[in-house]
Amino acid sequence: MSANTNAEEHHQGLRNPPREVVLRIRRRDRQDGPARWEEFALPYRPNLNIISCLMEIRKNPVTRDGQRTTPPVWEMNCLEQVCGICTMVINGRARQSCSALVDNLDPHSPITLEPMSKFPNVRDLVVDRSEMFDHLKRVKAWIEIDGSYDLGPGPRMSQEDVAERYAYSRCMTCGCCLEACPQYGDGNYIGPQAIAQVRLMNMHPSGKMSRDDRLSAITGDDGITNCGNAQNCVRACPMSLPLTKAIYEENRETVLHGLFGWLRK
Amino acid sequence: MANNGIRIAIVGGGLAGLAAAMKIAEAGHSVDLFSVVPVKRSHSVCAQGGINGAVNTKGEGDSPWKHFDDTVYGGDFLANQPPVQKMCEMAPSIIYLFDRMGVPFSRTPEGLLDFRRFGGTLHHRTAFAGASTGQQLLYALDEQVRRHEATGKVKKYEHWEMLSLIQDGHGVCRGLVAMERATLELKAFPADAVIIATGGPGLIFGKSTNSMVCTGSAVSACYQQGARYANGEFIQVHPTSIPGEDKLRLMSESARGEGGRVWVPKTQGDKRQPSSIPESERWYFLEEKYPAYGNLVPRDIATREIFQVCLDGYGVFGENQVYLDLTHIPAETLDRKLGAILEIYEMFVGDDPRHVPMRIFPGVHYSMGGLWVDFEQRTNIPGLLAAGECDYSIHGANRLGANSLVSCVYGGFIAAPAAVEFARNVERNGADGSKIYDDELKRQQEINAGLLKQTGAENQYVIHDEMGKWMTDNVTVLRYNDKLKATDEKLLELIDRYRHISLNDSNMWATHALPHARQLHNMLQLARVITLGALNRNESRGAHYKPDFPNRDDEHFLKTTIAEFSGEGPVFSWEAVDIGLLEPRKRDYTKGKQKAQAAAGGQAEQSPTKEGAAQVPTPGSELKPADTSGPATWGQKKEAVDGAVSGEVTPRPERGDSIDEAGGKTEKQ
Ligand SMILES: Cc1cc2nc3c(=O)[nH]c(=O)nc-3n(C[C@H](O)[C@H](O)[C@H](O)COP(=O)(O)OP(=O)(O)OC[C@H]3O[C@@H](n4cnc5c(N)ncnc54)[C@H](O)[C@@H]3O)c2cc1C
Ligand code: SF4
Ligand code: SF4
Ligand code: FES
After folding, report:
1. Whole-model pTM above 0.80?
2. Does the domain at residues B243-364 carry the CATH identifier 2.40.400.10?
3. Partner B contacted by A170 (CB < 8 A)
4. Are A84 and B41 an interchain contact pair (Cβ–Cβ within 8 Å)?
5. How many CB pairs under 8 A join A and B?
6. Same domain assignment for residues A78 and A161
7. B112 and A142: CB-CB below 8 Å?
8. pLDDT of B336-378, one tens digit each?
9. CB contact at 8 A, A50 and A98
10. Which of helix, strand or coil describes residue B651?
C-alpha cells in the first residue's frame, strides 16, 4: 500500500473531496445470465473502503438514475485482507475489496467493480473458486503425519528456513495471481498458487518424504511447464508470495524428478 | 458406503471444527463438515498473536499448572476448573502437533520453537508464527482435513449454512437442516451426533473485531431448540481497535508496550489537527489517573477509561475515538518493533502512524459465554456437542490473550471422541424413521416461505444496525440496570418490527437477504440472553462491569448463568462453579503483577494436582459427568493421559518443580 505523504489530510478526507463516490458495478443475475453495468452513487466520506460502500448500497439499492434494483451481491468475511474471500477486479486490477480504500482509488472518477474473469461467475461480484481448493487436493498440499496423537516436537529448523516457508504459507487462496496469469484458464494450467504450495510442502523435512507424489501432480499436461514466465503473478499477489521463485525451484525439482523417474523405469 | 458406519456432522470449519474433523476421520469414521464460507476462510485466520502452551523452553520454570492458575485467575474464577486444567496439560502437545504438521512457528537460534510473552503471565508461553498465527494454524488443520477429504472420510459442505437441529421424540439430536447459499436449497442431513463449532457472536454488536460470519446464529438456533446457553453476559471488549465504517480492526497491545501514549484534546470537540494541539492542551488521561501503570493498565481498565472519556464528550472530533500516539518515537524504531501492525493501520486508515496519531476505540472482541457443555464438550441435548468460541467452558469472566486458539483445538479434540462414543452407544435408525427429518425440513421451508411472502416497511439492515448500536452502547463496557432494561425493551421492539421486514432482494439466486434475515432473527434472540444475563448479575467480575456494583461478589454470584429458551424469552437458572483445584482469590492489579504472580506460585505449591481433584463434587453439579477421564483424552499418548489424570509424574519435567520466580523478571504488557 502506498505510504501517504501528507497523511493528515485523511482526517478531513481528500484536499478537494468529491461530493459523491460513484461505483460502476458489473452485474449478473444468475450463473449463465447476461451481464450488465449499473452505477451507484453515495455521499463521499473520508476513509471509505469498497466494502463499506457496498454495504451502504445494499441497504437501499437504487441506481444513480433513480431506478430501484436488487442489491449487488459480494462475499466478505475477515475484512482484514487475510481470508481472501472478497477478491474482485477493481479499476481493472484483481484485489481485495476490504483493503481497497476509496481515497486511494481517485474517487473523482467512477470506480469499476467486476467479478474475477477466470472463475465461474455465480452472481454479481461472486465467483466460484473451488478449483483452487481442488488443485490443493491434487498436489497433496499437506504433510503426511503419522497421526495426530502426541509424538513430541517436529523436526528442528533454522529461523531462516522457517522464514522462507512462512512466505509461502501466507497464501490465502484469493486467486489474484491466477487472474493475472496469461497462461491460466480453461483448465490448461494448474497455476502459480498450487505450485507455491508444492514448494511450501517440499521444503519441509517431513514433507520432503512425499515430494515425488507432489511433483508428479505438477508434471502433467497442465503442469508447471505451461508457465510462460510473464511474472504477472508476483506483481498481483497481495501477500507478496515469491511465486516465480517457487516456480523456478519446483521446475528444477521436476527436472531432477523426471530424470530419476526415467532412470527407475 | 456401509450403512452402519458412524457419521458425525460438524458445523463450522474454524480451528475447533477442523480439529474435531481431523480426529474423527483419523479414527476411521465419517464426517460431514458444514461451513458458511470455505473452511480455509474461517474467522480463525484473523488471530495474530499466538497460541499458549507451557512448554518451558526458556528456563523459567513454567508449567501447565502455572498456565492453569493464570487462566483461572485471569478469568476471575468463573470457569469450572477441571477442564481448564486439562487444557493446560494438553497445550504443549497441541503446539508440538502443529509443529509436526508444518506450521512455520518462529524459532530460536538453536532451531527450537520460540515463545513470546503475553498479558496475564510472567512466562514466555506463547508460540507464534510471524504475525499471523491463527492463519497458519488454521491452514495446517485445513491441510490435514483435506487429506482426509481426499480419502473420502470427510465430506465438505461449504457454502451450506446450518439452520436447525433435527431431534427425535426423546429430544435426541439426530442431524440438522442446512441451506445451500446459492440455490437456497434446504436439506436434512441425518447424523449420529452433531458438533457445533461456529465461533463467536460479534455481529450482534453490529461492528466488532470479528469476521462477518460471526453471527452466533447457529448457536442461537440450538438455544431456541433447547440447548442451554451459559454466561452470555461475558463479552470481552478490547481497548484498542481501529474504528472503521465496516468493522473494528484490532490494534495490538504491543503499540502501548512500545511506548504508545493515549490522549484526547482537553477541549471537547476540538477541531484542530493533532499536530497543532500543544502538549499543554492534551489530556493523557491514563497516565494522569494511573501514574504507576500509565498506558499499560490492564485491558479491562484501559477499555473502561477510554469508553468513559468518550461518553463524557472528549472523543476526538466529537466522535468515539481517542488518540494512540506513537509519533514521539523515532520512525526507525517503530519500523523495527511494530512494522507489521503499523502496516495494517496504514492499509486500512490511510494514515501513517509514524507521523499521525492513530485513532482508536474499544471494540467488541470475544465471547466468553456460549453453549453450556459438560467436561466432555456435550451440551444438554443428547447427541449435540460444542467446541471453540461457541462454548462457554474455559475462559470464565475474561479470556487471556492467546488462550482462545488453544481452547478451540482442545475443545475439538475432546468433542471428537465424545461424539464417537455417543454415536456408538445411541440406538440408531429408531422407529421415528424419516418422519422427524421431513418434519423439520418442512418447518424450515415454511419459515423461508414466510419470509419471502412477508411485505412490510421495515428494513433488515436497519434493524441490524439498531440492534448493534443499542448493544454496543449499553451492554459492553459499562452496564447500568436501567439501561439494560431499556435495551431489552428495545430488543423486543426490534423483534416485533422484524415481523414487518420485506427481504430487500427480489432475486433469490445467491441472495444474501434471506440468510441475513434468518441470522438476524437468531441474533435478536441471543442478544436478549446477553442483555438479561447482564441485568441479573449485580456485581462486577472480569469483563462484566457495573458501576453501581463495582466489586466481585462471590457470595452471591460465583455461579454460572444459564439461559434456556421459552416462548416468553430466556429463563435463567444458575449453577455452582467447580472450584475444587484453586481457592478463589481477589484479582488485584493495583500491586505489581510480580506480587500477584508470587501469590499464584504459592498456590501452585500448596495444591499440586491431586488425585481425584477433577471429581470434587460441587453443589448443583449433577449435570456434569463424575469422571473427566475416559475418551476425553482419546488420541493422546496413553502414559501422558494417565499422568494427566492422576497427577503422577509425566514426561514433562517441569511439573511440580519448585517455583523460581522466573528469574525475577518484571513483566511488560
Ligand atoms: C482480530 C482477532 C485476533 C485474535 N487473536 C487471537 C490470538 O492471537 N490468540 C488467540 O488465542 N485468540 C485470538 N483471537 C480469538 C480467536 O481467533 C477465535 O476465538 C477463534 O479463532 C475461534 O475459532 P472457532 O473455531 O471457534 O470458530 P471460527 O474460526 O470463528 O469458525 C467458525 C466456523 O463456523 C462456520 N459457521 C458459522 N455459522 C455457521 C452455520 N450456521 N452453518 C455452517 N457453518 C457455520 C464458519 O463458516 C466457520 O467455518 C482473536 C480474535 C480476533 C477477532
Ligand atoms: S510467471 Fe508463470 S505463473 Fe506467473 S503469471 Fe507468468 S505464466 Fe503465470
Ligand atoms: S499466491 Fe498470492 S495471489 Fe495467488 S492465491 Fe495466494 S495469496 Fe492470492
Ligand atoms: S474480507 Fe477477507 S480478505 Fe477481504
Report:
1. yes
2. no
3. yes
4. yes
5. 230
6. no
7. no
8. 777 777 888 888 888 899 999 999 999 999 999 999 999 999 9
9. yes
10. coil
